[in-house]
Amino acid sequence: MLRLLQQTVIGDELALAWSDGEESYIKLNVLRESCPCASCQGEPDAMGRVLKPKVIHTSRSFQALRMQQVGGYALQVFWADGHSSGIFPFDLLRRLG
Which residue intervals define the domain Gamma-butyrobetaine hydroxylase-like N-terminal in the entry (predicted)? Predict the structure, then answer.
C-alpha cells in the first residue's frame, strides 16, 4: 500500500515523499485548481448532471498554510483564503505530480 511519508511546501510547489521511494512536486496553483471538493468541482443534481460552479481565486487561494493526512489515503490542505474542504486522495496527488 502506498503511503505518504512527508509533505512540505518549497516555494510555489508541494513536495511529497512516498513510501515507494518516489517524490512528487506539484505547483500549488495546479493543486488548488484540481481541488476535488463539491464547492470546486460541483456535485450531481437529481438527474445526475454535474454543474461545475464558477470558482474565483485570489493570490491567497494558492498559499497553503498547513496540511494534514486523512486516514491512510489522502491529504487535506488548508489554504490562506479559508478553503479547506478538499480531500486529495494519494492517487490524485501522484497523477498531479
Answer: 12-94
